[in-house]
Amino acid sequence: MNLVTVLISGVLFGFGLALSGMTDVGKVIGFLDVTGSWDPSLIFVMGGGLLVTTPVFQLLVKQMSRPLLAKEFNIPQRTDVSFDLIIGAATFGVGWGLVGLCPGPAIASLAYMNEDVLLFAVCMVAGLFLGESINRKVFNH
Amino acid sequence: MMEFIPALSGGMIIGLAASLMILVVGRISGISGIAFGALNDWKPWTLLFLLGLITGAASFHLISGVPIPRLEVDNQRLIAGGLLVGIGTKIGAGCTSGHGICGLARLSKRSLVATTVFISFGIFTVYATQHGGSL
User: Fold this and answer.
1) CB within 8 Å: B105 and A54
2) What is the full per-residue pLDDT of chain A (141 aa) written as tens digits?
3) CA–CA distance from A29 to each of B30, B49, B82 (Å)?
4) Are the CB atoms for B42 and B51 separated by under 8 Å?
5) Pseudo-torsion of CA A129, A132, A133, A137, nearest 10°?
6) Which of B74, B89, B96, B115 is most buried, judged by most C-beta within 10 A?
């Protein structure tokens, strides 16, 4: 694993999240508040991201037998739209709507040294491990 | 009026970061998965990526002078929100980055369904809590 690339990617990702407004919970709630004073600007975050990643995946990754500095691509292979996928996404959506933080911005926002962000992030991590045991016990994987 | 410009350029930088990850090291930039991996396996690359996220956000505010956003949410809501985001992204195999930025670019049907579902439930939750009194 080329750790320099990982660090540069992480820094770019965090910079992009803060620039885009995704770490601003007021803005995120405004984006999700379609029946209130809707602020649609955050749709451009996913739009801008996909503008870059779609040609990369469709034109470059598909042509490559392996990544530039690793042995193999590590890409999810599942294609079935399963019950756990939908239940999980719905649960995530409720949590996202309650506070306005999804995982990337929650971790990037730790930079703000705010104890509320820290509380959210700790609970999110606890949730990830709870989710893992639910996956094992309920969904058998 | 021009609020879409930081959103669009920030999104493109996120896309560039995700592109570097897949092209160079062959990994999907799914933050919920990386965060779980960081504490479950303690792999150096996952910890380094998360450290990068924090450093990147800090650098943006230092360089631009844009004030740090406020967060005024009560503790019960932070706890419930954090737990639900963690449980949901683990069971649903991804979040806004893994499904939204990478999965949709891969034209994955699972990611399209997941993204539609979590945005819909996010909208519903904001509607219920902001306009319908307490949930």
Assistant:
1) yes
2) 799 999 999 999 999 999 999 999 999 999 999 999 899 999 999 999 999 999 999 999 999 999 999 999 999 999 999 999 999 999 999 999 999 999 999 999 999 999 999 999 999 999 999 999 999 999 887
3) 22, 26, 15
4) no
5) 170
6) B89
Single-letter code of the amino acid located at A13: F
Cα separations in angstroms, B47 against A95, A109, B33, B86: 24, 16, 12, 17
pTM of the full predicted structure? 0.96
Integer angstrom CA distances of residue B15 from A100, A137, B112: 21, 35, 17
Q: Are B110 and B93 in contact (CB under 8 A)?
A: yes
| Domain residue ranges in chain B | 4-130
Please state, in angstroms and rounded to a whole number, the distance separating the CA atoms of residues A88 and B44: 27
CA B80 – CA B18 distance, rounded (Å): 29
Q: Which of B16, B96, B113 sits opposite A81 (nearest CB)?
A: B113
Collect all residues of chain B within an 8 Å Cβ-Cβ radius of residue A87: 91-92
* Phi, psi (degrees; rounded to nearest 5) at B134: -85, 150
Instruction: Give the closest of B19, B78, B109 to A116, CB-based.
Output: B78
ipTM value: 0.97
DSSP secondary structure letter of residue A74: B
Q: Are A43 and A31 in contact (CB under 8 A)?
A: yes
